[in-house]
Amino acid sequence: MDEVDLVFGNVDKPRLVQQIVEWRGEHAVPCAIGDEADYISPRIGRTRAMVKIQEGCNQVCAYCIVPKVRGRERSIPTEALVGEIQLLAAKGYKEVVLTGTQLGSYGFDLVGASLGLLIATILSRCNIERLRVSSLQPREITDDLLALWSDKRLCPHFHMPLQSGSNSILRMMRRRYTAEDYVETVKRIRERIPQASITADVIVGFPGETDADFRATYELCESIGFADLHMFPYSMRPGTSAAYYDDQLEFPAKSERMHALLNLGKSMANQFRQGSLGTVRSVLWESQIADEGAIQWTGLTDNYIRVKSKSNLPLLNVIAPAMLASLDVEGTVRAEIV
């Protein structure tokens, strides 16, 4: 394509500026000066840092192009991650979010490493005030892993992709769990960590999804009562197995199902927030705006509820307890600093 000058792989992102400069024949790099440590120093007001612990995916789900564009799974050594998190804490970050394509597979390619051991090591060697795990598969959440949440620095929030509540669709998607597995994991989390929030992803309109399949998804989501739900209409990705499946759904059917699930997701989110009113949660206050002569702060609770509060206290980048007081018509939780 004449419009394309360069193509970069995902692993080349850290050298993007350098490679463009080399291609253009420039000598100065005005936007990349300073020593290496400066590259991860926080901007003013930055409170949370995303730390990638692994890259790639070996699961090859039928709808997903990630394995082709990001390659096979590979883990970042534990010592490198501990060093990065220690540096981030020293730079002023209050929360670190562990990210990756398949977090539960972390360490399979390293000697004596696993996600549980990594989390335990970070908690024992780093003074970061909060640690959050971004996403896990149902079968990866074991009793041993959940036991780590006895440390209050681990945020009680679990994001588990569901994708479908129909076992036949899950098999077609090549997911590695059943609807029953998913429900059992939710039960295990809630028994161990009652106030944890559980959020999920759902794909609507996967090829061959019948009314009964969608109803199974809807009813499963409704019975679980997620704290939040992220929905996506199925979108064909050339090069994936699902692109060749028969019974591709037309847009009207996807739109109707998306609308139903969006309404359910909003209702469940409001119910979770309503049920949290009157409780005191730790909040990481992240930003402020002027509001009728007062300062209105916005922040995130440990269990992933976005809250707002009016206060003239200097709360930027501070973790402080707040009582969740009310829910407005827009679904925003108003909090009072304790």
TrEMBL record:
SUPFAM superfamilies per the UniProt record, alphabetical: Radical SAM enzymes
Organism superkingdom: Eukaryota
Cellular compartments per GO CC: cytosol
Entry GO MF terms: 4 iron, 4 sulfur cluster binding; metal ion binding; tRNA-2-methylthio-N(6)-dimethylallyladenosine(37) synthase activity
Pfam families membership: Radical_SAM
KW 4Fe-4S (keyword) present: yes
Domain Radical SAM core intervals: 43-273
Sorted UniProt keywords: 4Fe-4S, Iron, Iron-sulfur, Metal-binding, S-adenosyl-L-methionine
Keyword Cytoplasm tagged: no
Protein name stated in the entry: Threonylcarbamoyladenosine tRNA methylthiotransferase MtaB
Species, as recorded: Geodia barretti (Barrett's horny sponge)
